Write the structure tokens for this entry.
Amino acid sequence: MLIPQDWQSYTPTEHATWDSLFARQVQMLPARVAPEFIDGLDILRLSRPGIPDFDELNERLVSATGWSVVAVPGLVPDEEFFDHLANRRFVAGRFIRTPEQMDYLQEPDIFHDVFGHVPLLANPVFADYMQAYGRGGQRAAGLGAIRRLARLYWYTVEFGLIRTEAGLRLYGAGIVSSYGESVFALDDPSPNRLGFDLARLMRTDYRIDDYQQSYFVIDSFEQLLKQTLETDFGPLYAALDGQSEIGVDAVMDDDVVYWRGTQDRK
Ligand SMILES: [Fe+2]
């Protein structure tokens, strides 16, 4: 299912689209994103103009953490996706959105996949978390629990926030690759911002059609990795099956509340 990136075939318009998206995000992100993300941009030299060439990118990424980026034609089946992650391969689309789609995309493109996801793969702790997630996915597939585990990915890898000395910061790829959500997730009064709790979050559905109504805040990447490695997911899945689902906008009595959202944006 892997395809060549075929970097030579990108048009000047496609490279210019990357450059516009990149310029807009890097101008806004430094005061909003986890410092490890900025470090990753530097380590991987992603600020060079144009769509990154995976061969060049991988030289730096492999030497940082042993991860590499591989191109795929479209959506990858779950088991294949988990196998890639478990072997430190991140799958990315090779296409880029059109200039008319700067702010809205139905499926992830190379800007989301590479700009959003790859900088943190240069961080050793986050890199280990992603591999642990892939291995967890392989086990979840055997337990019929992929739907639950997918929520962990969604609320961390795609839409996670992290606590820092300077305040809450973004790290989820779905946020950092979106101009609108980079502002909304941190500044808007509408969404909840709640402490990360693995079991709670796996009872919580998510939105695929709009910005999230709740974001979950980790203390550190070390916390995220440690909990993922130390949790015995089999008994946890079984226990969760006996519990009710939690609404996307709900705040529970034992949630750690950084911000109780007004939920004005529905
Ligand atoms: Fe993504």
